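Lab manual, section 2.4: Encoding a predicted structure.

Procedure: take the sequence of the chain (101 residues), apply the prediction step described in section 2.3, and record the output as structure tokens. A sample record is shown.
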Amino acid sequence: SDVSFHGETDPKKSLYTVLNVCLPPTEKSSMLLLTLDLQGVACSGGSACSSGATKGSHVLEGIQADPSRPNARFSFSRYTTKEEIDFAIEQLESIYEKVLV
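Recorded output:
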């Protein structure tokens, strides 16, 4: 798979409730977040501190995420269930197979 995860894994040095996922390149990557939203998956592109910014995220640069590939930021809480995570993964797989090819 061409998926990578970014960020510090030591909970003393990171916000363990946030995961950045770098996804396979696709010409239709601009449709990813909208399509996930329409399928009921809440996530964001970039980093929270660069919301609305017109330039790339210094956070994604700092964690060495590839800016040429789509990145999605998922946030979790103690209320997030395994079923919700599985659903998000299933939707990502489906979107890449059917929409973003």
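Check your result against the sample. Residues 82-98 form the longest helix (17 residues).
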